[in-house]
């Protein structure tokens, strides 16, 4: 899938690969004009983290997985950047959880929806996974949001009890929390509104976090939730880990 000029031995290979994936997705019409800005903000925070999954992120990853596994109706939300950066990982995770993915984008246009859905369905066929890909026929609204970004499927996001929304906008994250859902965010910025408002926040790079989740499922299967899990404390640790990485370098 990745036809990239850089060599895997390059010290910035992972970062170059993600940029390459965004370029390819942009050419396919999957991204909003602001997608690169959002990615750049993420990259800056990843540098501060030392481009690694920290101990607190690993705890959030375990808790997120436990929450998704014990949910009645989990769903994984996909936006343009997520489809560009980690389409396969999201499909594999949905397959492991036997749940749907739903394409749900902030700047909704029919062209972008079509491009993202086509990409998801193409990768679904290549991977040979039997995952419902929703987003093509929204018939419901997320209460509290205005305009096309409120659109969703009633048999997907609307009725879900637990939702994974990587790289989500703060506004929509808040609207989903207000619906009483367990909202799991993956966001490298521990200070973003999404990171602050979610039920569980994984402060880690998207593809690293998803690959850790997939490995956990493979190695341990069913994960038990930590009854003492403290969202704010884990977020605070994420921030301290960034500050310590800066002090040590
Ligand atoms: P909020 O609306 O929550 O306050 P924001 O407006 O600053 O956040 P958005 O543009 O809505 O940010 O969403 C992009 C978010 O995704 C940023 O917080 C950025 O740090 C994060 N991000 C970007 N790329 C990645 C990535 N590959 N992995 C994890 N997080 C990322
Ligand atoms: Mg925002």
Account of the 3D structure:
By secondary structure, the protein is α/β, with parallel strands linked by helices. It has a single domain, classed as Phosphopantoate/pantothenate synthetase (Rossmann fold), CATH 3.40.50.12640. It has ten helices and eight strands. Strand 6 (162-164), helix 7 (170-178) and strand 7 form a beta-alpha-beta unit. The termini are far apart. The structure holds adenosine-5'-triphosphate and magnesium ion.
Which CATH-level-2 architecture?
3-Layer(aba) Sandwich
Number of helices: 10
Helix content: 40-55%
Task: Give the radius of gyration.
Answer: 17 Å
Count of β-strands = 8
Assembly annotation = single chain
Give, in spatial order, the strands making up the sheet with the most strands: 3-2-1-6-7-8
Ligand catalogue: adenosine-5'-triphosphate, magnesium ion
Using the alpha-carbon principal axes, give the shape.
Answer: globular
Give a quick account of the main beta sheet: strands, pairing sense, barrel closure. Answer: 6 strands, parallel
